[in-house]
Amino acid sequence: SKNIRYxxxxxxxxxxxxxxxxxxxxxxxxxxxxxxxxxxxxxLPAETCNQCDTTCIHTLKTHLRVVHSQKLRRRKSEIxxxxxxxxxxxxxxTKKHDLxxxxxxxxxxxxxxxxxxxxxxxxxxxxxxxxKTFKCDxxxxxxxxxxxxxxxxxxxxxxxxxxxxxxxKNFRLNMSLTRHISEVHEGVRKFKCDICExxxxxxxxxxxxxNIHLDRRxxxxxxxxxxxxxxxxxxxxxxxxxxxxxFECNICHQKFHxxxxxxxxxxxxxxxxxxxxxxxxxxxxxxxxxxxxxxxxQKKH
Length: 301
Known about the structure:
The chain has ten helices and 16 strands. By secondary structure, it is mainly α.
């Protein structure tokens, strides 16, 4: 009976050990699956620098800052052009910090360099009583949000405090500078047409391009009612209704609405005839005259 009991205990202990080993192996497999694996170099997007043709794994913005020592943006106080002017002696500075130092040293004025403090004072002045609305002191337009009000007020002051250090272009808003760097200098085109797979910098360009495939004409002329797919086409069309002839021939000084028409007109002076009639061999300097001739020539033959 003792041997039977020991044998039963041995079998029970062996079975428990097997169960324990299985549970331990499953927990180890689960922990390895849950552990985040570092991304491989093949999974990271590769970008090419336009200056050194180097394919970098990190972002192009980091590559320009580290390798070429380029700052893609300046501080809020730095802009090109002397836009900060002293209201006492009319002396102008390119940096707001220099203007504040001038006011403190020459005119003994205490200036708060904190933009948050300045915005707080502007909001307090333009707040309508005890309400949460803000009225613009330039155009008297009312806003419910302080951020929208400050963004709108910068249009009137026309202070472009955000400067691109690559091309020197100035912007009123930080988000405009970020979009400019992404679209122009980094060449990011993340909007793709589903039909022709052409890529665009922003959604507005993609939506306007889709008008070509869907045959939509949302741009309508106010004078004649003619509709166009592109906004640029509507602008060119409106030049025909106006008396503005902005483009002039430098030979005979004849004026035209479009620059393309000037190029075609210059061909009449240079006597370059690029269009040939296949039926009779006549040559023409403009495509319009060639098409008109071909229509008459085909009727004869």
